[in-house]
Prior knowledge:
- By secondary structure, the chain is α+β, with helices and mostly antiparallel strands.
- The chain is built from 8 helices and 7 strands.
- It has helices spanning about 35-45, 115-125, 145-155, 165, 175-185, 195-205, 220, 230-245; strands at about 5-10, 20-25, 70, 75, 95-100, 110, 115.
- A hairpin with a 2-residue loop joins strand 3 (about 70) and strand 4 (about 75).
Amino acid sequence: MKLRLRVWRQKNADAPGAMATYEVDGISEDMSFLEMLDTLNEELILRGEEPVAFDHDCREGICGACSLVINGDAHGSERTTTCQLHMRSFEDGDTIDVEPWRASAFPVVKDLVVDRSAFDRIIQAGGYVSVPTGSAPEAHATPVPKADADSAFEHAECIGCGACVAACPNGSAMLFTSAKVNHLNVLPQGAPERETRVLDMVAAMDEEGFGGCTLTGECATACPKGIPLPSITAMNREWLRATRKVKR
């Protein structure tokens, strides 16, 4: 398979960026998208050129490190992570545009790498539960209704990749933040910080400069783990509940 790649190149956060065109040949349809980029970088290194910087870690769709906009779609046209997107999804001779996440809260570090530490600061604001010291509690001491457990597991699947932000026309982080809030607020273990969690995490999200949510739904469509759009509504309810309780 022979492909033409148009890749965003940017030396650093302060330097201007532009698309650079490369031709790659001998690409197997069984390669992942990141393996295809590895092939490109090997060729660039052999030619004495600077390889393309991009984020990756586990390459198993778990860590959320891979973060590319491919032909205008976060993680590509399939609902998966970039590392799990395979070249069989493309045709021989295709031209593929590869860009970094586009959001003011995710500044470009170099080429396709962006700084997503804003997500870390949102989690630090309230993404935790109180853990009393002493011996471990008995496993069944606090019953959790199955519906609540299922909801918690569904939201806990968020890997923090940032595709929701990249896909949102407003650059909103509402889906990410709602997943982290709802994952804990629905469980009895999260009850002690229920109000402060949602207030603090939403405040941290706003401070980071993410855009406002207008419920376009692009975030849920792009999410590789299927975090549902109603998660945002659930967080809004939690926020209103917490606001009223604090005012009392």
